[in-house]
Amino acid sequence: MRNKYLNFLTEQDILSLYNNLLVGNKYYVLKTKNLVVDKVIDKLKEDFNFTVKEESYFKIEKTSGNGHDWHVDTGSNNHMLWCDLGATILLKGDYKGGETYYRENDKIIEVDRGIGDLCAHSSDVEHKVNPTTGDRQVFLIFI
User: What is the residue extent of each domain of the chain?
Assistant: First the structure.
């Protein structure tokens, strides 16, 4: 299952993330209180069935130039078997490439997304991000 929420984060929400989180650091949901993260979780609860776990985390990630090949959010080596749900929000758009795709029943679907859009999917949904040049940063959460 997957869903997209257009214009979910405001410019103020994005600024709040940058003011409270370090790019690249991992923050655990149950240990780190953040109003924007709470807003994301509350929205996801409307459409997805999940439980926040001790391992659940969020971060701001600068997308590597190589992108991310096809994968599911339980991890390429099954190192995140606890993960039920993954979500991303594009925070910066000063880049080229970085297109996001889902693969469902051998059909490849490109995700049309803008700054602040929330894209969420159950951890069994296969997806990828094309290589990127420039400064592409996303908020990630794994629950």
Answer: 2-135
* DSSP-H helix ranges across the chain: 11-20, 35-47
CATH for 2-135 is 2.60.120.620
pLDDT digits (tens, 9 = 90+) for 15-26: 999 999 999 999
Q: Per-residue b/e over 50-89, b at no fewer than 16 CB within 10 Å? A: bebeeebbbbbbebeeebbeeebbbeeeeebeebbbbbbb
How do residues 73-85 score in pLDDT, each as one tens digit?
987 778 899 999 9
pLDDT in tens, 92-134: 988 999 999 999 988 999 999 999 999 999 999 999 999 999 9
C-alpha to C-alpha distances, 6 to 3, 98, 132, nearest whole angstrom: 10, 18, 22
